[in-house]
Amino acid sequence: MEKILNRIHPVSDPEVTYFLQVSWEKDLGIGFGVTLTDGQCAWTGAVSEAEISREAADMEMNREKYVEELKKALISGEESAGKYNFSIS
């Protein structure tokens, strides 16, 4: 299993630092787990392959292109800094 941890500052609350851990087996496109923490509380979840396909279809985006964008936003870290905005709700 691969894991990556990124520090994020959501546009919804830029003064707060969150840490986002994404974990996956082989390929992000077959699903992944997420853990988000602000240092006091933590939230976990999972995204299935079906959910990825459904979201790509909802956005009228090619599935492979959607997975590439997920990789850039969730696991590329510093090289994608400033290109993606996160909102916590």
Can you describe what's shown?
The model has no long low-confidence stretch (mean pLDDT 90). A 4-stranded antiparallel sheet has the order 1-2-3-4. Helices cover 25% and strands 31% of the residues. Strand 3 and strand 4 form a beta hairpin. The protein has a single domain, classed as DNA double-strand break repair and VJ recombination XRCC4, N-terminal (Dna Repair Protein Xrcc4, Chain: A, domain 1, Beta Complex), CATH 2.170.210.10. With 89 residues, the protein is an alpha+beta fold.
Overall geometry comes to globular
Annotation field: number of helices: 2
Radius of gyration: 13 Å
> How much of the sequence is in beta strands?
25-35%
CATH fourth-tier homologous superfamily: DNA double-strand break repair and VJ recombination XRCC4, N-terminal
Query: What value does the average pLDDT take?
Result: 90
Give the name of the CATH architecture.
Answer: Beta Complex
**Distance between the ends:** 28 Å
- What structural class do the secondary elements suggest? alpha+beta
Q: CATH class, anyone?
A: Mainly Beta
Tally of distinct domains: 1
Pattern of helices and strands? EEEEHH
Helix content: 10-25%
GO biological process, one term: immunoglobulin V(D)J recombination
Organism: Ceuthmochares aereus
Protein name: XRCC4 protein
GO cellular component, one term: DNA-dependent protein kinase-DNA ligase 4 complex
